[in-house]
Fold this sequence. Notes:
Blueprint: H1 3-10, H2 17-26, E1 31-38, E2 46-50, H3 62-75, E3 77-84, E4 87-96, E5 103-109, H4 117-139, H5 143-179, H6 185-211, E6 215-217, H7 218-233, E7 239-243, E8 254-256, H8 257-276, E9 291-298, E10 302-309, H9 317-321, H10 325-331, E11 335-341, E12 345-353, H11 370-380, H12 385-392, H13 396-410, H14 415-424
Parallel strand pairs: 7-9
Antiparallel strand pairs: 1-2, 1-5, 3-4, 4-5, 6-8, 9-10, 10-12, 11-12
Amino acid sequence: MDLxxxxxxxxxxxxxxxxxxxxxxxxxxxHRAVAELSGNCPHSPFKTHGxxxxxxxxxxxxxxxxxxxxxxxxxxxxQGRARIGGADVPVLALYSDATARGxxxxxxxxxxxxxxxxxxxxxxxxxxxxxxxxxxxxxxxAPGVLAQSRAxxxxxxxxxxxxxxxHGAALSALLGVLRRRDLDDPTARARAVDLxxxxxxxxxxxxxxxxxxxxEPAGDAFARLADSLRPELRGLTVRLDLGPPGTEEGADRPxxxxxxxxxxxxxxxxxxxxxDEQGPGQDGAPHPVRRVHIGWKVGEGxxxxxxxxxxxxxxxxxxLDARRVGERLAALGGRLDVDAVPEWxxxxxxxxxxxxxxxxxxxxxxxxxxxxxxxxxxLARGRRNRQIAQQLHISESTVKFHVxxxxxxxxxxxxxxxxxxxxxxxxxxx
Length: 430
């Protein structure tokens, strides 16, 4: 590795530092995965890159890294076999004391032979550089870095809250059994034991699942969302239609933990807002929500979550702002689109980038909402307003409204200019 590689690592965006570092070290120290535990990282203290062989569900955890920290701290590095992702594998652990809180880097190696002294020294210097660079970013954090830090903290808080909820539900169930006077002692004891065993198994499963706080397949993340919504809608006359991501929609695509947790929180908040904002239609007659459809799709670089109801179409963005939906999405550089059509219902689309937040100005289409992007795609295909309305199942007047907004946001004066931008920036799909 030369100084050019070091410069390339340091200049990388926050979300690309670990992948760039892995690439810089790969030739000298072949490895299949890398993980870091950095107390001074303004984004997330624990991150991984790469994949472990064997069990596709295996994941590196903070506990496994923390176990390697004392040995690496003592000498600055440690190499040998350690338990990572539930298996004994050869690893190299590097510890940097370039900052007061220190930082640990662990490479899951592809071979057993000791790392040569020269390669080891170079790796330690590079890790010290990255650690010092991160410390500077933490002390001189720009707004974008602060937003990512808040999002990561929110992801960890959500995971902790889910564990607390599960623990509280288990205790409540146990107390309910023990307080029942119609059960004799042996029966109450048997039921309490059964509840405790079931709750403990579920709690351990949640802990294993959330401990890494790194990523999870989109399909699994959606299943957790569905599991959390079903009990909340139980007893209501509302049908929950689920559109989980299939293979084509990126079901196997790993989602960063902050993205998955934020998407789940946003969808739950939107569903609750839809149910709370029910009211009469334009004719004054009751128009309750009877069906809520939820769908996820993982595209190239983003997760798009759509929630659609058949209610009166009166939901407004202010109702979602009160539930901090926009704030949660903004922390990850996401966007929100609300399309409420009286008598037809409301469609809310939340789009979350899978990488570092894009900065406004880098992409002229950045300011457009999800529905506006759909209209722009149809417009770029040469379709007229009536055809767009039929394709998107909206009215022509709604199409005209979106087209006017698109032209204004893009700073163009004609549909042709807007279509040219759409083609130039890849908004036309396949």
